[in-house]
Design goal:
245 residues; 8 helices; mainly alpha
């Protein structure tokens, strides 16, 4: 099994099953769905405060920077310590909520209505892909996994290079603009992010089949949360480019 989501790497479930015996309560699909709902609710509640500050004209740099950095730290902790996920995953969700609330508010101030559009597109995409996956309209083959993993890795490297070059005042032309190239790039990134959801669904289903411990429900929900946050941010970027045309 492969997944490009760093939270759900190839050996996660295998290692958990190997270390655990057969006397523990097992992960279920319903349990993972419930945990995902809890994490989303925590993120939404946490997002309300920085969102309101933006609407009042307050500076929210502390919230989006702190949320982004803190979310990265707790995301890495959760990835390396899945057994801690019942504690670290909710903390991650709250921190990501602060980050998303702040940046969503900033986008909303410039492009009224964009936040609810991005939320609708994110949830709609996730629901459509889940339905397609459950009905087997999308089959997760080895080639499918390899393609999504390679595309995700390429996007991550591109973003990293763009970030590093930015420190030297070098901007990659066209990609971040509102022209056809920039919009086309955003569409590709949104597509790859969405396909990562399919890999996450498949990986969680395999984890349930493997009989991993109950706490992995939180870990599976955390993995989905990582992809949903990425997809939402990419929808914000895409919509903002379309509004600028």
């Amino acid at each position: 099994m492969r997944t490009s989501n760093p939270a759900l790497n190839e050996n996660t479930f295998r290692q958990v099953v190997t270390r655990s015996g057969f006397d523990v309560e097992r992960m279920t699909l319903d349990g993972t769905v419930n945990r995902t709902g809890m994490l989303l609710l925590l993120a939404v509640v946490a997002a309300l405060y920085p969102w309101s500050l933006v609407q009042q004209g307050e500076n929210t740099a502390l919230y989006w920077m702190g949320g982004a950095i803190g979310g990265l730290i707790f995301g890495l902790i959760t990835s390396f310590k899945p057994a801690w996920s019942p504690i670290t995953a909710p903390i991650y969700a709250v921190l990501e909520g602060l980050f998303l609330g702040a940046i969503s508010g900033l986008f909303e101030m410039r492009y009224p209505g964009i936040a609810i559009q991005a939320v609708g597109l994110t949830l709609g995409t996730a629901g459509a892909l889940l339905l397609a996956y459950r009905s087997r309209l999308i089959k997760v083959t080895e080639n499918f996994r390899l393609g999504v993993v390679a595309a995700t890795g390429g996007i991550c490297l591109f973003y990293l290079a763009s970030w590093v070059l930015g420190f030297f005042g070098i901007q990659i032309p066209l990609i971040h603009g509102s022209g056809l190239v920039g919009i086309g790039f955003s569409l590709i990134v949104v597509g790859v992010a969405a396909l990562n959801l399919v890999l996450d669904f498949d990986f969680i289903e395999n984890g349930v089949a493997a009989g991993v411990p109950k706490y992995m429900e939180w870990y599976g929900a955390f993995g989905l949360m990582v992809t949903l946050v990425w997809l939402y941010v990419e929808f914000l970027r895409l919509l903002s480019k379309l509004r600028d045309r």
